[in-house]
Design a protein that fits this description.
Distance between the termini: 36 Å
Order of helices and strands: HHHHHHHHHH
Number of helices: 10
Strand content: under 5%
Oligomer: single chain
Radius of gyration: 17 Å
Helix content: over 70%
Largest sheet: none
Number of strands: 0
Structural class: mainly alpha
Low-confidence stretches: none
Mean pLDDT: 89
Shape: globular
Length: 224
């Protein structure tokens, strides 16, 4: 499978995955949500007034998306998937609520993949993380505006009723917030950057990160 090199290419690939999967597949649920987010971010990147470096942000968006696509392609080829992504693929047909699949996928993609993508773009462009922090925060502001509506779009009428009351679903998901997740992801990126020349310690940190993120995603996918 070819690797997308543009944001438009990522959107095409996400749409292909959406067409390949049953709508109630947990992987399809996350992918559909991610497609919606990517389409919105693409519109922001196209606005030259939004970022200091729109070209760099587009490259970051593509690198970030390709980590999800690599996990999807690995699972489709029956190859090992990084531990951080295993909970979503292992429970994809277990009948969890759609919002659980969406949030668990966001947790893995933001807490695990995003810091790796940030470090990757810094290495590729000879930058320090501080050089891209303002643009990173701009994306946070955009996502803060759309996250609630995206989350609720995965709730059917009954689940909305549960969500509007303080029920098990709200209790499960209330501790996960996209702003806090991206703030923590930034700290993780800074940590990976600081450890990039430490060899085994850096490798152990990344392995621990993958397993720790998996624990949270698995908790978000428990039966309600």
């Amino acid at each position: 499978m070819s690797v997308p090199t543009t944001v438009d290419g990522v959107i095409v690939r996400l749409r292909e995955i959406d067409a390949e999967l049953s709508p109630d597949d947990g992987v399809a649920v996350f992918n559909r949500m991610y497609l919606t987010v990517t389409e919105r971010i693409a519109a922001v990147i196209a606005d030259p007034t939004m970022f200091r470096d729109s070209e760099m942000m587009a490259e970051l968006d593509v690198g970030f998306a390709n980590l999800w696509l690599a996990a999807y392609d690995a699972d489709a080829a029956r190859q090992a998937v990084t531990p951080a992504w295993q909970p979503l693929f292992q429970t994809r047909g277990a009948g969890r609520l759609p919002v659980q699949y969406a949030v668990a996928g966001m947790n893995t993609h933001i807490e695990h993949d995003l810091p790796i993508a940030v470090v990757g773009i810094c290495r590729a462009r000879g930058l320090e993380p501080d050089d891209i922090h303002d643009d990173y925060e701009t994306v946070n502001n955009v996502l803060a505006q759309v996250e609630s509506s995206i989350r609720r779009s995965f709730l059917d009428a009954l689940e909305r009723e549960v969500d509007d009351r303080v029920g098990a679903l709200v209790h499960l998901l209330s501790g996960w917030d996209i702003d806090r997740a991206r703030d923590l992801s930034w700290v993780t990126a800074e940590t990976i950057w600081a450890l990039r020349r430490t060899g085994p310690l850096g490798d152990r940190f990344l392995d621990g990160l993958s397993h720790t993120v998996a624990m949270t995603s698995r908790a978000l996918l428990i039966p309600t």
